Amino acid sequence: MKVGIVGAGMVGSSAAYALAVMGLASSVVLVDRNHDLAVAQAEDIAHAVPFMSSTVVEATGYDGLSGASVIILAAGVSQKPGETRLALLERNTAVFRDVIGHVLKAAPNAILLIASNPVDIMTQVTQRISGLPANRVIGSGTILDTARFRNLLGRHLGISPQSVHAYVLGEHGDSEVLAWSNAKVGSLSLAEIAAQVGSPITQSVRLTIDDGVRNAAYKIIRGKGATYYGIGAGLARIIKAIAGDQHDVLTVSCVTPEVAGVKDVALSIPRVIGANGIEVDLMPDLNAEETEGLGQSARILKDSIEAISL
Fold first, then answer.
1. Average pLDDT over residues 77-97
2. Runs of H (alpha helix) within the chain
3. Range 237-252 average pLDDT
4. Catalytic positions
5. pLDDT > 60? residue 96
6. Model pLDDT, residue 307
7. Which of 54, 121, 243, 293 counts the most CB atoms within 10 A of its CB?
């Protein structure tokens, strides 16, 4: 599989590195308006490849995207310290208006994978501008938030996060919803596993984990300016599901006909991912508080997308 990446900054290059070292793509092409940056990133990653895989990594112009099955859109301006993802809206929408035309001219049949923030809104912007079916325009959504949730639960319980089944829903941002009510470890509920391993899930533990998930990006941005390793791996994980037609369940963002009473909005719920992109939406059972939270998250995103003139 050939994968294109538009935007060779930290997120795009981290995704390229993850794809290359995992051997998930036969070819990875980096495109950036700063071509010297794209060349430097491609060369650096290519020098790691002989240790891990046989992926070809190179920097090209937009024409080099021809034949790509998936194109990651990681272009745009970075989130500033203290800036919410929603505040990036107008700045990144302007960038995407230009980028999407070039991408579709080169690779009209590619699945578009959106990484730029605010990712849910940029996913809906991309779907509207491109005119592609919603299942072929996928936002990274809450895949990283879900990984953070599972990691923190796993740490508390002393269990591998890969054995934790828990989801973060809604916006990739401040209004996201941690679905505590249906979280499981193996086949056990949180209460059952916590009792068996002797690590109770108290209200204090819940608040600490919620804060760790919800504010992780702000903490990382304060420390080093941006987040990129986690989302780079998350993007590679989505592409793995597409490349292998694996029908994996991942929390990604997509324009959804209706969620919690809100129509035509992009946000994250668990979805089945295969070779053609999103195949099925899976709406989890939620308690009343979580259902209300998801509705509030959907309304925030809906209000934001309606404010944009496309």
1. 75
2. 10-22, 35-52, 89-106, 119-130, 143-157, 190-197, 203-214, 216-224, 229-243, 288-306
3. 98
4. 172
5. yes
6. 81
7. 121
Dihedral sign, Cα of residue 294, residue 300, residue 303, residue 305: negative
| The pLDDT of residue 78 is above 80 | no
DSSP secondary structure letter of residue 158: T
Query: Are residues 239 and 232 in contact, defined by beta-carbon separation less than 8 angstroms?
Result: no
Quick one: pLDDT band at residue 76, thresholds 50, 70, 90? confident
Query: Going by C-beta distance under 8 Å and a sequence separation of 6 or more, which residues neighbour residue 88?
Result: 76, 77, 79, 116, 117, 118
Q: Which of 123, 103, 105, 102 has the alpha carbon at shortest distance from 114? A: 123
End-to-end CA distance of the chain: 32
State the pLDDT confidence band at 82, using cuts at 50, 70 and 90.
Answer: confident
Q: Which of 276, 10, 25 is nearest to 138 (CA)?
A: 276
Alpha carbon distances (Å) from 50 to 53, 59, 60, 167: 6, 18, 21, 36
With contact defined as beta carbons under 8 Å apart, do 89 and 308 qualify? Answer: yes
pLDDT for the residue 3 = 98
Q: How far apart are CA 166 and CA 179, in angstroms?
A: 7
176, 251 in Cβ contact below 8 A?
Answer: no
Residue 135's nearest CA partner among 294, 233, 238, 273 is 273
Q: Is there a contact between 31 and 64 (Cβ–Cβ < 8 Å)?
A: yes
* Closest CA relative to residue 27, chosen from 16, 36, 38, 39: 16
**What global pTM score does this model have?**
0.95
